[in-house]
Amino acid sequence: MLGGYIGTILEVDLTRGRLTDIQLDENIAEMFIGGKGLALKMIYDRFKPDIDPLGPDNTIVFATGPATGTTYPTSGRYHVITMRSPLTSLLGSANSGGKWGPYLKFAGYDAVIISGASDTPVYLGIIDGKAELMDASGIWGMNTFSTTDTILKMLDQPKASVACIGPAGENKVPMACIINDNFRAAGRCGAGAVMGSKNLKAIAVYGTGKVPIARPDALKQDVRTALGKIKENGVTSEGLPIYGTAVLVNTINDHGGYPTRNFQDGYFPEADRQNGPTLSDTYLIGKKACWGCPIGCGRVSKVSDGAFSVSKSEGPEYETIFAFGSDCGIADLEPIIKANYLCNELGLDTISMGTTIACAMELVEKGNIPSSVLSGLDLAFGNAEAMVEAVWRTAYRAGFGAELAHGSRKMAIKFQQPDLSMSVKGLELPAYDPRAIQGIGLNFATANRGGCHVSGYMIAPEITGLPEKLDPYTTSNKAQWTITFQDFTSVVNSSVVCLFNTFALGLPDYTSMLSSITGWDKDESDVLTIGERVTNLERLINNRYGVDEKDDTLPKRLLKEPISSGASKGKVSHLSEMLPEYYTLRGWENGKPTNSKLKELGLL
Questions:
Q1: How far apart are CA 272 and CA 86, in angstroms?
Q2: What stretches of 57-130 show up as alpha helix (H) in DSSP?
Q3: CA separation for the pair 87, 335 (Å, rounded)
Q4: Is the pLDDT of residue 1 over 80?
Q5: CA 418 to chain centre
């Protein structure tokens, strides 16, 4: 077997209660690396059309990559793919840190494929090569924190890592996520709801195995080189370690791209009250790093007293601060920290949750939601108490929470204002206004899972100047940059390591690392082609759900309504100038890969 791989995949049929070990095909590993790429290939091979996202035929795959669990920096991640997302009805894709990914490999598996549905609640334990389905009736209904603590005691294995769902997943809320290690989230696209539909409460993993390395001495040098570059880079050595991801609040706001009041504006005057320095000076009580991470961007926060008191919580991250903060017209960190804590406890994606509340606030503001429907919930911009209340109501589908639970797109359609959903392909947008940053807008529009920034993080060149500074207002050459970033990110998510190390590391580093771990002899072009293959395979599957050029767009507001204040005042997204070139360079027609492109990549 190639280095970097355990060589075994666990296939779980919940309907029959059957667990089967299957061997990893080395040729498949070379074509798709692992993580996202491997999971997509498994979904593609098992694809069924017209399935119910919350039905037993919806397959979910948890996958690691060859780098996961090695000494390479930031290799503590895993990727999750669902055949269909209950939020978008397309492929679901999510990624998480913590220690669950490495522990799955140490327990003896590269990936877990789960299909079917159990008649009763169960959880899956994978301990040192032994996998077993166990009764979860006693923990069904628990929040994620209690679930994790209880399973660790039941297994008598306090060092294990638990990935689980909370009440939101059990109640099949389409934006429900998977929480591992209490505060790490496979957040987007509703994978938690898919687990809930299968009566699968959790997966606990632990093992004492090791990841085989093909060229240990070469990997040691790769690690030294990577650590040196991470230490030399300002973002990975200072910005993220000192202030966490909240370091971006002022950077993006000063540029005029910080979405405010459901993207009605791109500048939030009170951003200083929720930025990285303010979080550090007020509520920060510690820092936390994922497994194998030298950057340590994680925050540990506390609100000592008051209506929003929280004894201990990780975060909030930049995206969460935007979603519950500026996007809802809320400046204070205390309610943002509380809402973030509730999302971790109940198992909800903070981006989709916060932006769906913001959408509801604008619907209320414009008179589209009558007060009789709100069940006493005063959803006005700036109402922190109502925002926090809305989070737990959504998890339990209580009162107006039943409407919020659908996500912003379906909710906005129901209340006859579909254009007020700030989403792409049904997935709510993250914390960057594409009117102020043209390349990220192209990425939002073309990202396969919907409104996604981490499939091609164009913020790096357009705002932070890495690997070189691009003018964020111009459309020139943004198509090629976006394609390169998307394909490289597919390599990162298939390897699987943290995207944050790419502020310091590039394709040559990944090429060398993968060769050292696996024993491959591939050049940079070969590796980037694998990334292109993964991106195209994901698009090919979504084409089967009807995705084409009509879906590669942005909310009308971002194309037609100029930003009203701040440094980017007067700007709109010029997507139409970039999209044709993007398709030409991709080898796509009408949003679909051509047969010649699929043959070139070995997908046809």
A1: 36
A2: 100-106
A3: 26
A4: no
A5: 24
- Three-state DSSP state, 419: helix
Helices (H), 4-96: 26-32, 35-45
pLDDT in tens, 407-442: 999 999 999 999 999 999 999 999 999 999 999 999
What tens digit of pLDDT does each residue of 56-102 get? 999 999 999 999 999 999 999 999 999 999 999 999 999 999 999 99
Report the DSSP beta bridge partners of residue 204. 125, 162
Q: CA–CA separation, 206 vs 416, rounded Å?
A: 49
What phi and psi values does residue 403 have, to the nearest 5 degrees?
-80, -45
Query: Which amino acid appears at position 274 of this protein?
Result: Q
Residue 205, token pair as written in the block = 């993993």
The residue type found at 433 is D
Pair (451, 417) in one structural domain: no
Among left, alpha and beta (phi > 0; psi -120 to 50; other), residue 397 is: left
List b or e across 183-200, with b for residues whose CB sees 16 or more CB atoms inside 10 angstroms: bbbbbbbbbbbbbbbbbb
Of 19, 20, 24, residue with least CA distance to 7? 24
352: phi then psi, degrees, rounded to nearest 5: -65, -35
Question: What CATH number corresponds to the domain at position 60?
Answer: 3.60.9.10
> Residue 455's Cα: distance from chain center in Å?
9
In the chain, % of residues over pLDDT 90: 100
Residues with Cβ within 8 Å of 494's Cβ and at least 6 positions away in sequence, in order, are 32, 33, 34, 35, 36, 37, 38, 65, 79, 530, 531, 534
The pTM for the full model equals 0.97
Taking the C-alpha atoms of residue 103 and residue 99, their distance in angstroms, rounded to an integer, is 6
Q: Which of 408, 427, 446 is the last residue of a domain?
A: 427
DSSP letter (8 states) at residue 418: G
Cβ neighbourhood burial of 227 (10 Å; 0-12, 13-18, 19+): middle
Domain count, the chain: 3
Residue 58 shares a structural domain with residue 186: yes
Whether pLDDT at 14 is above 90: yes
Q: Are 216 and 424 in contact (CB under 8 A)?
A: no
